[in-house]
Amino acid sequence: MIEKLDQIFVLLTGWLVGFLPGFLQPLAGVVIAVAAILVTFPALFAICVLLERKGLGRMQNRIGPNRVGPFGIFQPVADGLKSLTKEDIVPLKADAVVHFLAPVFLVVVVFMGYAVLPVGRHMTLVNMDAGLLFYFAMGASTELSVFMAGWASRNKYSLLGAMRAVAQMISYEVPLLMSSVAVVMITGSLSLNKIVEAQNVYTWGLPHWYIFTPWGFAGFVMFAIAATAETNRSPFDLPEGESELVAGYFTEYSGFKFAEFFLGEYVGMLSISGLGTTLFLGGWSAPLEVLGFVPSWCWFFAKIMMSMCVFIWLRGTLPRLRQDQLMNFAWKFVLPFTLLNLFVAATWRFMGDGWLRWVVCSAVLVIAYVVVGRAGMSREHFGPRSYRYAE
Amino acid sequence: MNWVFYLISGLAVAGALAAVLLKNTVHCALALTVAFAGLALLFLKLDAQFAGFAQILVYIGAVAILVVFAILLTRGSETPKDGVYSKFPLTGLAIAAAVFAVLGWAVLHSESALPHEYRATPAVTVMDIGNALMSRYVLPLEIVALLLTAALIGAVIVAMHEKEEAK
């Protein structure tokens, strides 16, 4: 019974496919799986938007949307209808073809990333050897869409926003990759399924998730920072800083094309949460051995919704960074630490079992963190605020 | 599955042609990206997963962005008044033909390119590539890494020089 519930979607697909003649069955299986992804994640997107608007409202001491349906829960439906019926305005001077292609390309590329994410036990659309590489290849392509949008709009705010976004995404892609490489080194595989399987082991009822190791914890923190910057979320949302750039690279988009950018952003956040979950938080495995009876896909979705809540919480808490702070943080702090983390992960791998590796690895990371932090702080001058241009 | 090959090749060739023939420089860069994507798909069609994804990651994710940035930061995307076509088309044609001849010669003389010498190619996984890079080809890998690091430091120094003068 428990196993049936765990595999309910796999069995359901198998049952549905069974109605078709044999030669159509593989194709139909793929179509059903793709359709499931295309339905599930936009639905989660709607829930996340509502959660964000209500949650941010609470954090800012207001009620948030409360007119559409009980407690405003139908707000996403109203938003969707509105963006479908709104006029689609394309600037006269804009490059119409590229202007149209940019949001389409973004949505396509973002959804491609889900092809390799293990959503549950035996629930990966394409189980390929180089899954992680595929994910990052798709993630790297989103930059091009952002550039296309900014350039084709023929608007200085759009172009500035696009330049900022691309510079930021390139800078943070390096630490994102580097922090994931540590996981690949320990697992010895680029396949996301194998990475989850390696973490789905229990000692004394506790899981072997990578976040519970010194290098994994440091890697997860840096992965989370880089992922927040990759998805242009607050506090790294300079590309769409509304006080300076109106709306950044999608200033000139309206109606459904704007909705596509919105969808792309949230689905991208969900997908990178899914990747972080898979790499460090044990993917679909249960947090305690006794909880193994809960279906695996429940754990996966619970974990990504938890990460989405953290994203929202960060947005409600932290102020936006400045451009130079953003770049300095990426190149002078996060990147050196990811490199150090690679060494620590290698040490962990070759020191064998025992308590000694816990001490050595934790000590190296903590000492480096404290020393770098102290050195950075001593260089700063804290005094009365000075204004370079305003006085 | 021959039609898949022709479809992908058509995409790559069309992208490459557009990159040469279009007037707007940014459009050319975007068309070049299409050609890169077509090449990546060809690699994937040949079951070379690593090469295919590395092609997307490096060429679409980094090189295309770099090209586009370079265009924007230098000349702008406006078309020059005297057109984009070269004044010496014959020279260019000769050079292109020479490069194509060398590449074609190399391909035709490689061992398994000819159909009658066809052997079942061994399946090369990402793991095999990793093993080969870390064991047999570790020296070239390290030399390339050193070269790239030197280039990176050189670039930083070139960029830093200007800042010191400004002080």
Key phrases:
A: 391 residues, two-stranded antiparallel sheet, 14 helices, 2 strands, B: 167 residues, mainly alpha, 6 helices
Biggest contact: A-B, 25 and 23 residues
Write down the overall geometry of chain B: globular
- Global mean pLDDT of chain A: 84
Please give the CATH architecture of the domain at 1-79 in chain B.
Answer: Up-down Bundle
Low-confidence stretches of chain B: none
Sketch the topology of chain A as an H/E string, one letter per element. HHHHHHHHEEHHHHHH
Structural class of chain A: mainly alpha
Q: Taking Cα atoms only, what radius of gyration of chain B do you get, to the nearest Å?
A: 20 Å
* Overall number of strands of chain A: 2
Tell me the quaternary state: heterodimer
Helix amount of chain B: over 70%
Please identify the structural class of chain B as seen in this structure: mainly alpha
Helix content of chain A: 55-70%
Strand order of the largest sheet of chain A: 1-2
Q: Write the CATH homologous superfamily of the domain at 1-79 in chain B.
A: NADH-ubiquinone/plastoquinone oxidoreductase chain 6, subunit NuoJ
Mean pLDDT level of chain B: 80
Beginning-to-end CA distance, first to last residue of chain A: 72 Å
The fraction of residues in strands of chain A falls at under 5%
Describe the structure.
The complex is a heterodimer of chains A (391) and B (167). Chain A is an all-alpha fold and 391 residues long. Helix content of chain A is 67%, strand content 1%. Chain A is built from 14 helices and two strands, in the order H-H-H-H-H-H-H-H-E-E-H-H-H-H-H-H. The N and C termini of chain A lie far apart (72 Å). Chain B has 167 residues and is an all-alpha fold. The N and C termini of chain B lie far apart (63 Å). The chains are: A mainly alpha (391), B mainly alpha (167). Chains A and B meet through helix 6 and helix 7 of A and helix 2 and helix 3 of B.
Topology:
The complex is a heterodimer of chains A (391) and B (167).
Chain A: H1 2-6, H2 8-17, H3 25-59, H4 75-85, H5 96-112, H6 131-152, H7 156-187, H8 192-199, E1 202-203, E2 206-207, H9 214-230, H10 242-245, H11 255-280, H12 296-317, H13 323-350, H14 356-379
Antiparallel strand pairs in A: 1-2
Helix pairs in contact in A: 3-11, 3-12, 4-11, 5-6, 5-11, 6-7, 7-9, 7-13, 9-11, 9-13, 11-12, 13-14
Chain B: H1 2-21, H2 25-45, H3 49-74, H4 89-109, H5 126-134, H6 138-166
